[in-house]
Each structure stands twice: as C-alpha cells, then as structure tokens.
Write a structure and sequence with these properties.
Layout: E1 3-5, E2 12-14, E3 18-19, H1 29-44, E4 49-51, H2 60-68, E5 77-82, H3 89-103, E6 108-113, H4 122-135, E7 138-144, H5 148-156, E8 163-169, H6 181-188, E9 191-195, H7 209-215, H8 219-227, E10 233-235, H9 242-249, H10 258-266
Parallel strand pairs: 3-4, 4-5, 5-6, 6-7, 7-8, 8-9, 9-10
Antiparallel strand pairs: 1-2
Helix pairs in contact: 1-2, 1-9, 3-4
C-alpha cells in the first residue's frame, strides 16, 4: 500500500482509504457482520484510513466502524464529519461527543465539517473545532465540500490549529475541482480527499484497453490510480465486499507513466 502525508502534519495515511457511505444500512445481523469484516480486511491489506460521518445511516455507520476497529484502534486513522445543521459552537461539541460514543474511541483522528452552512459563521464553527483539538478529542481538523474562499476563511479562523484537508467529489468523470480547489490544496499543502472516485459505481467505458492489459488492472483500478496521480490526493472508494476491497487496495501498487495519465484523462 502507498502512504501519503496528511497536509504537512507528518501523519501518514493510505492513498486509498475506505469510504463507508451506506455502511450501517442493513436488514440482518449477517449483513452488519459482513460490513465489519470488510473493513477489518481492508486494514489487513494495509489501508489505515476509514472515513465516515454522523449522517451516514443516522450514525449507524460510525457504530459499524467502531465495531470494526475494536482491538486495532492504534492501527487505524478514523475520519468522521459533523453535519451542517450542527455547526453552532455548542452543537459541534455535542455532535463530537456522540460520534466518539458511537465509534467507541476517546479521540477522532480527523474531524471534518461535512458541508458549510451559510446561516452559521465559519468562525463560530472553527472556534468549536479548535476547542475539540485543544481538549484532545480531535487530532486534526478538516473541511468537506468547501470552496477555496470557504477553506481560506476556515483556515484564517483558527488561532492555534490548521486545516489539513478538504474532502470533495473528484473522479475521472467529475473534474470540476481541477479548476481551483485542487491547485489551492497543492499550493497550501492541504490533502484533497476524493470521495466518489469511482463515480458512484459508473465505471468509465473509455479506459484504454492497453492500460488494463499492460498493468493487469480493472477499469476501476485504473480510475483510482488516475485520480490519485497527484501526491496531494487520496481517495476513499466504498467497498461492499472483500473482493472489492482487495481490488481497491491494489489499485496503486504501481504508477503509470505521465503520458499514460494524460491518455486516460483525455479518453
């Protein structure tokens, strides 16, 4: 597994993480056990980043993650998010406490603001995030779905801490962030966390067959390799099965030539 620095913290996280949207949504205990097993298998494969959120399955996703990391917490980097309706100062603190309880841990590695709320000042929210960092409940602070201006404002609102990442949608099929957010993250040494890197399961049919044959990769693996071609980018695809987890984990075992990345992007 390939690892990259989170922001400029010195913290190493796997280039391919584990997204958990819809984890916690299950109708039987066997389905839940399968989700837990899939996450643990990802850790066994060298993936140390698990990303979740309080709104995923109304908090049950965090509970599944908490069960999966029992006994291996020190080997895992947990990222979760506070919902946009909980961005007033005291609400952030309360939401974090609930997430900690569901995750069964005393600290969150990366706590992210899931979406900005235009009715609540970023400065108020960041004040609460910084308090959590000071108290030790949170190790690092990140944002998600923030524009360049919003990210800059969030950074300026912190007195002792810093923004280390911005989680945004990015895939071969959705490249809007290349115009401004990605260059900003590169310039400011922030990590860009790409969600939906496989375009919600709509695998591109334009992947050159020469690429899949040369590197013995599936089109999905080529897409993950391509989206993480910049060293500032990590990706958090969701894996619904052990085989999908293995496919994701091995997608960056080798790197393409620069002209091949251009070829995939052009296609």
């Amino acid at each position: 597994m390939e690892y990259r620095e989170l922001g400029h913290t010195g913290e190493k996280v796997s280039t391919i993480g584990m997204g958990t949207w819809r984890f916690g949504t299950h109708s039987t205990s066997a389905e839940r056990a399968s989700q837990v097993q899939t996450l643990r298998h990802g850790v066994e494969l060298g993936i140390n980043l698990i990303d979740t959120a309080e709104i995923y399955a109304s908090g049950r996703s965090e509970e599944v993650v908490g069960e999966a990391v029992k006994g291996i917490r020190k080997d895992v980097f947990i990222a979760t998010k506070v919902a946009p309706e909980h961005l007033h100062h005291d609400d952030v603190i309360a939401a974090c406490k609930r997430s900690l309880a569901r995750l069964g841990t005393s600290y969150i590695d990366l706590y992210q603001v899931h979406w900005p709320n235009p009715h609540i000042s970023i400065r108020e929210t960041m004040s609460a995030m910084e308090k959590l960092a000071k108290d030790g409940s949170v190790r690092y602070i990140g944002v998600s779905n923030f524009s360049v201006a919003e990210t800059a404002e969030a950074s300026a609102s912190l007195e002792r801490s810093e923004i280390v990442s911005n989680q945004v949608e990015y895939s071969l099929s959705d490249r809007r962030i290349e115009a401004d957010i990605l260059p900003y993250c590169v310039r400011e040494k922030l990590t860009l966390i790409a969600y939906s890197p496989l375009n919600r399961g709509h695998i591109a049919d334009s992947i050159p067959s020469a690429m899949t044959q040369k590197y013995r990769m599936t089109p999905a693996q080529v897409m993950l390799n391509w989206v993480t071609r910049d060293p500032r980018v990590i990706a958090i695809p969701k894996a619904a099965s052990l085989s999908h987890m293995e496919e994701n984990a091995t997608s960056v075992s080798v790197r393409f030539e620069p002209e091949e990345y251009e070829q995939v992007g052009s296609a």
